[in-house]
Design goal:
0% strand; AhpD-like; mainly alpha; 76% helix
Length: 102
């Protein structure tokens, strides 16, 4: 979160206050479900760095590699095969970094 240092501190504050403070803490969806939705959206809009961050978050929120794979398959149908290929590759990289065998 501190990758942008002092320069990025206002942006990080905005993210923490609104995204995680307001939206992620709402009672309407379980954190696990929110995680799956966010990785799908990041795959669909081709945000590789955010996708990996949120795959890690999804795993921390109790999602399984199988559930993440299913989301990536849906991305293929609704956002295209190139986006799904990237998502699969990035998910596998993240699993490997965490020592997870899918």
């Amino acid at each position: 979160m501190g990758a942008l240092g002092e320069f990025g501190a206002p942006l990080q504050h905005l993210i923490n206050a609104y995204a995680y403070g307001d939206v992620w803490s709402r009672p309407g969806l379980e954190r696990k479900v929110r995680s799956l939705i966010v990785i799908a959206m990041n795959a669909a809009i081709n945000r590789a760095a955010e996708f990996k961050v949120h795959v890690n978050g999804a795993l921390n929120n109790g999602c399984t590699p199988d559930e993440i794979r299913e989301v990536c398959l849906l991305v293929a149908l609704y956002a295209g095969i190139p986006a799904a290929n990237d998502a699969h590759r990035l998910a596998l990289e993240t699993f490997k970094e965490r020592g997870i065998q899918p």
